[in-house]
Amino acid sequence: MLGNLGIAVVGSGRAGMIHARNFASGIDGARLVAMVDPVAEARAAALRELGLDRGYGDYREALADPAVGAVVVVTPTATHREIVVAAAEAGKHVLCEKPMAMTAEECTAMIAACDRGRVRLQLGFMRRYARDFVEAKAAIDAGAVGEVVLVKSHTRGPSVPQPWMYDIAKSNGPLAEVNSHDIDALRWFAGDDFAEVYAIGGNYRCPEARKEHPDFYDNVAMTIRFRRGAQGMIDGAQGVGYAYDARLEVVGTRGVLLVGALQASSVVICGSDSRLVSPAVRSWRDLFADAYREEDRAFVGCVLEDRPPTPSGRDGLEAVRAVNAGNRSIATGQPVKL
Amino acid sequence: MLGNLGIAVVGSGRAGMIHARNFASGIDGARLVAMVDPVAEARAAALRELGLDRGYGDYREALADPAVGAVVVVTPTATHREIVVAAAEAGKHVLCEKPMAMTAEECTAMIAACDRGRVRLQLGFMRRYARDFVEAKAAIDAGAVGEVVLVKSHTRGPSVPQPWMYDIAKSNGPLAEVNSHDIDALRWFAGDDFAEVYAIGGNYRCPEARKEHPDFYDNVAMTIRFRRGAQGMIDGAQGVGYAYDARLEVVGTRGVLLVGALQASSVVICGSDSRLVSPAVRSWRDLFADAYREEDRAFVGCVLEDRPPTPSGRDGLEAVRAVNAGNRSIATGQPVKL
Amino acid sequence: MLGNLGIAVVGSGRAGMIHARNFASGIDGARLVAMVDPVAEARAAALRELGLDRGYGDYREALADPAVGAVVVVTPTATHREIVVAAAEAGKHVLCEKPMAMTAEECTAMIAACDRGRVRLQLGFMRRYARDFVEAKAAIDAGAVGEVVLVKSHTRGPSVPQPWMYDIAKSNGPLAEVNSHDIDALRWFAGDDFAEVYAIGGNYRCPEARKEHPDFYDNVAMTIRFRRGAQGMIDGAQGVGYAYDARLEVVGTRGVLLVGALQASSVVICGSDSRLVSPAVRSWRDLFADAYREEDRAFVGCVLEDRPPTPSGRDGLEAVRAVNAGNRSIATGQPVKL
Amino acid sequence: MLGNLGIAVVGSGRAGMIHARNFASGIDGARLVAMVDPVAEARAAALRELGLDRGYGDYREALADPAVGAVVVVTPTATHREIVVAAAEAGKHVLCEKPMAMTAEECTAMIAACDRGRVRLQLGFMRRYARDFVEAKAAIDAGAVGEVVLVKSHTRGPSVPQPWMYDIAKSNGPLAEVNSHDIDALRWFAGDDFAEVYAIGGNYRCPEARKEHPDFYDNVAMTIRFRRGAQGMIDGAQGVGYAYDARLEVVGTRGVLLVGALQASSVVICGSDSRLVSPAVRSWRDLFADAYREEDRAFVGCVLEDRPPTPSGRDGLEAVRAVNAGNRSIATGQPVKL
After folding, report:
1. Which of A223, A296, C223, D85 could in theory staple to A22 by disulfide, Cβ–Cβ 3.0 to 4.6 A?
2. Is the ipTM, as predicted for this complex, more than 0.90?
3. How far is CA C73 from the centre of its chain?
4. Is C266 on the interface with A (CB under 8 A)?
């Protein structure tokens, strides 16, 4: 099954390069054939690092390339709908990074286009392929804590919000940027959809955004009620100085499960100040390096073996709906039904 | 300063006996002089265990006893107001267990009575005296995580809710029974009062209560906005089979702090099933044994040295207000302002 | 059973005051009646802190005091034999701190005297009463790791060796001062006696001792073979800057058990340097405060209920034999049989 | 630098396949060109899995293959000398698995042959490339614990000793099979060579070997003195049921460092038995998967950039000397100088 699926990665930013490096080596059944980036220098740098010669400035060129069987879409969220719909119409399978899109309507259009084009659409919630999370989910499914009562998850990232994020209407805020993963994880672990959310947000670390963007928040707390009655709690933050902190906890009728760790290695040092010191996880790239690889493998597997991918377009859609409901709740101060 | 303050403990249940044993030995400046319990057998058993001879069936007898300088009130919540007001009028100092009362009005009356009677009123939030929590609070105050952005706290207890708790209007529910501690801890760590809460509740473990008490909840998730803008999250549970689980987390502008542990000892065993196993904390009595002793010491210190106690009646009042706001939010599905 | 056994504590140093404070309050069946210390100021300070009026400059005065039913011997090791033998002859029960004595001969004389005097002799290996160690031993006995193959234990203490310790012939060195506890713990967990030891020592932290005391060591590594064939490993250190570090590990035929922790509290802080920081245990006084209390309780229980104490004089003797064998091995470079 | 160095892996057992899979994809500058295994079925299975067509039954065929620039030797230890010397004479670079050989003489011959043949010789102590160990070593070098006083390391593996290991004279026992890694790690962390060792061994888990092989041991404890005076302790075990347990600890003049963990994932589950449960590491293949990849990368880097490899032939030689000294100590009951 080696070498069958030609991959074009659209976007050569940090996450784009993770996928590109994976497909450049070590993903059975696929090979990286092209990089797409409208910025010439970024494109050239990516090709150089990857030892690749085919670079396109426009994603449409990649879609026209018969060597390309699938695209990985790692561009700004607002461009996802256009690219994914075009890819589907060109008959290219799609691995689309999160958040899927800005609105539920966009997501629905993307799903419909992929259905019409008979191409696979997988969403980039890589925690579904992170070893510890997979192990945790298997334990939950095996009844380790009884019935799921409450799922808590948080993601707090060190990346300082960039000015384009300040306008929540345009960026969908931290709920989209960091908590999309928690939203998907909650749905995955609860095995259920969100019925209602309530969220509060505040700007604690970006004083420069306060005047022009009073609605901007860099810290958010959200409560969720699932359709079948379980509870959820999510919190998120951007620009935390300390680490990349992603942990999840499931309270069941008969137990509790924790997954995720702040500690980055097994090294513990105690020096003359009598303090135990260990390194914290600094980046999602370190924490989820293996998960991205497994995600890319799973995508290739679905395409080559003609199976429905996980997470699906619907998982992407539900996350976008939750993000938007959360943002509406923050804006109105009221719980919002989905 | 030995032997100055005579203590009567009103109520010989589990928490009552913790206080009684403490005052029976090892609290400088105080001595246990009487136990009060209307149930003769319980009273007799307590006196026997404590090696004490003075037992009263009615708290008023203890208040009339000149050897009694202070009372520790460890009776059902609904009786607190009457007992504390009477104690204040009798000139007896008061250490009152949590929750302080059923309503804010009761709390206000208790505070006023203690003010009028010129007696000290301390509330039984013993986490304020738990070594790890004290250490954590000192670190927060020293700026270890920057400004406080979000305080999360949860308490999940193994005690199965008893039928008298099923009627939330009469019991105030888990928010009162277990989460009073989290509410006080949030206020303590944030250094601020609650401005608004939103809570959801559900009954996941007590099917026998569902028919007659559809409003009963044994699991709750609450979001808090503080007056000066910080965020809070609390969750609580009763009847969890697994442990007594009380952990708190503070997210700041520049870091994070965690306090509380599920692990009850340093013992780790790995046997032939390749699983690492450690014992979990089974009871608040184990976890907070030292904290109760420090709390009792602090109370005696405040009385003897004529200092205002911590936590105060106002801390008790604010917690009751938050409990009631949370219950109203659960009932109405809307956020509730305090 | 309250108030039966009058206790005199001989020696008002750090460990002496721990015992004295315990017996001054909270040990059922016993009461502190006298402190012994030849240094008048130290004695006076101890009496003042303890609220006690009976202080003796000479242990013989305490032995002559009819209110004294038992003595706790917390004096320099070289004085133990004389005091314990005299106490036994005076009919006083003895709780003797570790190391029991300087030589096996002294130990044998002490045991014989206590037998003749029909008094109880308990040794001060308080780890036998430390909750985590007790729990670990129970798990081993219950077969949690199968048959015991290897017991490892170490004690590394922050106390800087004092000049009187430099002469190993007079002090018996760190093997006596800190590793006595490990030796006893190994025998306890293996349920067996030492057959042979091999040890190496070195002076790494006390350059000022090197010239006059080339044999002084502040770090030691010892290998043990038990009579029935199990293995042991001990290491010890004095003057480590970092913590009081006492951990034990048991390898069995089917598993492993770890007990003891460097971490002093559940508080973990991660600040802007992305390092997880927790406080380390700074002193055996913190770590074993509860163990000392249980040890003192157990001693009183044995005396009042006429049961043989644990650990016994023989446990003290075997530890001294192991210390001396270890020191001989260091000196000769050869394994030494016991 | 892609595709320059052709690799033949000699031996298709578990470790052989790890190297083969690495070189088959993802190691820049190298490509797997051939597998060598005298067993036809094993060879065929390896080729099939690797998608490779070149398989040799005799290593000499690989050495004669001009496409082969380097060999990875993953055969039984007793064959290492012959293969490595032949490879060196054929001008092929060598990555040789541990233990390097059975005797110091063999090692010396191998080193000399590689020197004469001007080929690189790297030893397969992959812990030198394990992320946590590298981080730990960097901290030690940066002075995190002061001067190194004592290095402790152990490896306890779940693999049940196979009958060919029972004859220590032929297998060199667990000291060679599992503790070679600890020996190398001690030298690496101490930055020094062994001066003297003392070891004891016993057979606790393999009763079937006792009669014919009374010298066989499956558990070993070894004490080490380094040339410049530091101390070392190693223990090792085979056939432990519980996990693959590899941990290292460095005591310095001013601190302590721990590296290695029993816990295999961040998942912690607490169910209704109030026990915290996490999975333990089951195999070195899981634990060191990344380390093998880094080791293979480093080997290719040394060859292509003409740098001396780490660890070197001399590191392999010193480990073999320590293994043999340890076995002699076990046999004679005496410390053995190196």
Report:
1. A296
2. yes
3. 12
4. no
